[in-house]
Amino acid sequence: MPTKRKSAAKKSSAKKSSGRKYSPKASKSVEREMKAMKQGKLKSGRSGKKVTNPKQAIAIGLSEARKSGAKVPSKKGSSKKSS
């Protein structure tokens, strides 16, 4: 006697985002900062120390893209709205 299978498709409660998460403008900004880091020209903000961590270079690129108005998701830690 064959067993009946339930449909494999699961309903997810999370919304799917449509379109790109990061704009091409943001991508170019990150690319520029990564290139500067690899050349040894990228400095961090206040201290002015040389940036050697790729994650930090990406963060700097995304931050600059946000300031210029590019489509970039908000930071993970700053999900709270300030009044």
Description:
The chain has helices spanning 24-39, 54-67. It is mainly α. It has a domain at 24-67. α1 (24-39) crosses α2. The longest helix is centred in the middle third of the chain and has 16 residues, at 24-39. It is elongated.
Outline the low-pLDDT stretches: none
Count every helix, treating DSSP H or I runs of 4 or more residues as helices.
2
Computed CA radius of gyration, to the nearest angstrom: 20 Å
Helix/sheet category: mainly alpha
**Alpha carbon gap, first and last residue:** 63 Å
- Give the ordered list of helices and strands: HH
Helix amount: 25-40%
Largest sheet geometry: none
Average pLDDT over all residues? 83
Q: What is the percentage of strand-forming residues?
A: under 5%
Number of strands: 0
The best one-word shape is elongated
In short:
By secondary structure, this protein is an all-alpha fold. The protein has two helices and no strands.
Secondary structure: elements and pairs:
Layout: H1 24-39, H2 54-67
Helix pairs in contact: 1-2
Key traits:
single chain; 83 residues; mainly alpha; elongated
